Amino acid sequence: MSAVLDTCRRAAAVKHTIGALRTTEKNRVLLAIADALEAHREDIKAANALDIAAGRENGLNEGLIDRLTLDDSRIDGVADGCRAVAALPDPVGEVSEMKLTPNGLKIGKKRVPMGVIGIIYESRPNVTVDAAALCFKAGSACVLRGGKEAYRSNRCLMDIMRGAVESCGLPADCLNLIDDLTHEGANEMMRANGLIDVLIPRGGAGLIRAVVSSATVPVIETGTGNCHIYVDASADLDMALEILNNAKCQRVSVCNAAESLLVHSSVAEKFLPIAQRRLNESHVILHGCPRTCAILPDILPATEEDYGKEYLDYEMSVKIVDSLDEAIEHINRYNTGHSEAIVTHDYFAAQKFLDLVDAAAVYVNASTRFTDGGEFGFGAEIGISTQKLHARGPMGLRELTTNKYIIYGEGQIR
Amino acid sequence: MSAVLDTCRRAAAVKHTIGALRTTEKNRVLLAIADALEAHREDIKAANALDIAAGRENGLNEGLIDRLTLDDSRIDGVADGCRAVAALPDPVGEVSEMKLTPNGLKIGKKRVPMGVIGIIYESRPNVTVDAAALCFKAGSACVLRGGKEAYRSNRCLMDIMRGAVESCGLPADCLNLIDDLTHEGANEMMRANGLIDVLIPRGGAGLIRAVVSSATVPVIETGTGNCHIYVDASADLDMALEILNNAKCQRVSVCNAAESLLVHSSVAEKFLPIAQRRLNESHVILHGCPRTCAILPDILPATEEDYGKEYLDYEMSVKIVDSLDEAIEHINRYNTGHSEAIVTHDYFAAQKFLDLVDAAAVYVNASTRFTDGGEFGFGAEIGISTQKLHARGPMGLRELTTNKYIIYGEGQIR
């Protein structure tokens, strides 16, 4: 058996142990992990320094080096993150929809752990701790596979966490990190049916595509967001300006940032020049449809590719539409099922947009930037699901669990 | 574009139309389909006769010929099935967990259609109507791929249903049947990402394995059931006998039938002989562990393979265990995550079994045969999910839908 499958097998072997833990026991472990991370901060920084040195040698840009870096304040952050997860309510064990059937069976739906959760992610080493803490609190063993550039940091964080788990008298194999970072290793993990119950890729569009096309274990797609702001004919243009600016510029590198602006033709001549002026403050590059370019002659023309693009940068496509229907059709054609917003005063336009736009989160008169586990009140999130199966939108602890039916009988037969 | 992808594309093109229909409109279509199936019963029987003749020529056994056959009473059955689906409550549009966030956003979780549901199934042509009716009521377009042996029947049923949809003024492409029944055609359907939102294989273990290993669209596994009856030390042995007999013999070819009997060693000498006598009435072949064989010397020895086998026949594996823990461990090792039952008088044994057995449905003192959409009160089901993602256990209309978050704002930005 390969090292990867062996890791998966060891995780599966302890899943029933961790699944049966009480909330107080799980919280005690999470607090022990937080303390251990703080106690070993010098080890973490030393391992991280090696990753950073190797990254610089390999020519990583400063943005990536920054994502890779674990300084004291970030170590405090991941430790506090564990404590925050410990403070969250435990979804496991809740029984909903308990009912009595005509023949006297009591049937209830009980929330239970997944078993083994696999997560494949990219550069940021703090994900190693965040993901492990969430999976643990959700009662599942985890198998994590981080990026090559962060391997030494991830290994150090994982060893500290596993030590803390053991110090609480529990098997370290509740938390696992894959050491084999080859393509073959990834493929083994993606095809570990029977060992891994769900696989969550967290990262860029390329990673997610690769996992979706190769995995045979169930996958939850996360992340890519080609989000639109549609300024309706009846929009309050000042409100539209604030929402547009916030959704585009507050943080450009995140999946819930807006990438495309649609403007109703009846307000385009008035709105587009003020929108351009506002976005210019952040040096946003605009790619417009021909009618937009006629109003804003100094911008770039939008290609078909622009409409489908998640820039993750100070860049945006702009299109004038003649109706709400045209806006909805455009969005349903080019979006990635993440977050979409209409700015309008019109009751019927608001309802139609909410009804017909096909996305995880659909907004009326608010910024798309709110699609986030914290903002939605979940406390913490493992990612934003953009697929329709199991979980759609921010995934918190609840979405990391499944259910089983429990049935109390008195000898019933069919 | 291939014929298969073209069909998927046409389904996707109308998904927003069907998704926006009101319940009354959908019900009107379902009743029109029921009427049309009855009105065209001679056409259906004629097409079916061709399938049956071809089946006999190809040497199908009588069991399969029976599954293939559509006589008047079965045609009445599928038509009534459509009327029953029309009578079910519509899950689409329900908004749950609407809440007001601290910054004044109103966030709710709205149940919405999947979009396009693909279903790959085997011989029985009535599935064509059942599946189409459920998907339609759930607000999704469907792409169905039935078995080769039933193709003429399926095509006839589908043409009648599409005609009924059109007669109601709606696009026929809401309902689709794949004509290309080659392996390549199946693969195209399984990899139609962006067109098919979820794929549900309905059939034997081989079909389901093939779909799980080839599909890149999200899949819900259904069906295979290696279900156990565990007779605990404290069991009422009369009750255990009735439950065992019902779970094994009432209908052997279904996924919720029992395939394996576990008996606590303290009651084995008493229970096994009476169990054998009772099962002998239905000529059940037993495969026992060495200790079982010592008590019942005339049975076959069980191999490792027997413990993992879904016989779907008058056949059963039997094993003596020395504790509840050993029973749970055996079940979690060999089961397929379907339905498991304990017969016991012991409160703690019952709770432990419910807590620790990893399956879609876990029973205390009742037959596993109750794992069924109808018995669970869902009215109709598309199958029994044995995976943990999205839906686990019987899948009714609700499980054929997804959700999106809708957010009402007043200009909020982050």
Question: What are its keywords?
Answer:
homodimer, 414 residues, alpha/beta, seven-stranded parallel sheet, four-stranded parallel sheet, 15 helices, 16 strands, 21% strand
By secondary-structure content and strand pairing, the structural class of chain A works out as alpha/beta
The radius of gyration of chain A is 24 Å
Number of strands of chain A: 16
Segments of chain A where pLDDT lies below 50 for 5+ residues? none
Mean pLDDT of chain A: 96
Give the biggest sheet of chain A. 7 strands, parallel
Strand content of chain A: 15-25%
N-end to C-end Cα span of chain A: 44 Å
Walk me through the structure.
Two copies of one chain form a homodimer. Chain A has 414 residues and is of the alpha/beta class. In chain A, the strands form four sheets. Chain A has a seven-stranded parallel beta sheet. Chain A has a four-stranded parallel beta sheet with strand order 5-4-3-6, with helices on both faces. The first copy, chain A, is globular. Helices cover 44% and strands 21% of the residues of chain A. In chain A, 54% of the residues are buried. In chain A, strand 12 (339-343), helix 15 and strand 13 (361-366) form a beta-alpha-beta unit. Chains A and B meet through helix 10, helix 15, strand 13 and strand 16 of A and helix 10, helix 15, strand 13 and strand 16 of B.
Question: Topology of this protein?
Answer:
Two copies of one chain form a homodimer.
Chain A: H1 3-19, H2 23-39, H3 41-57, H4 62-68, H5 72-87, E1 95-100, E2 106-113, E3 116-121, H6 126-137, E4 141-145, H7 151-167, E5 175-177, H8 183-190, E6 198-202, H9 205-214, E7 227-231, H10 237-249, E8 258-264, H11 265-280, E9 285-288, H12 290-295, E10 300-301, H13 304-307, E11 315-321, H14 324-334, E12 339-343, H15 347-356, E13 361-366, E14 383-385, E15 393-395, E16 401-412
Parallel strand pairs in A: 3-4, 3-6, 4-5, 7-8, 7-12, 8-11, 9-10, 9-11, 12-13
Antiparallel strand pairs in A: 1-2, 2-16, 14-15
Helix pairs in contact in A: 1-8, 2-5, 2-7, 3-7, 5-6, 10-11
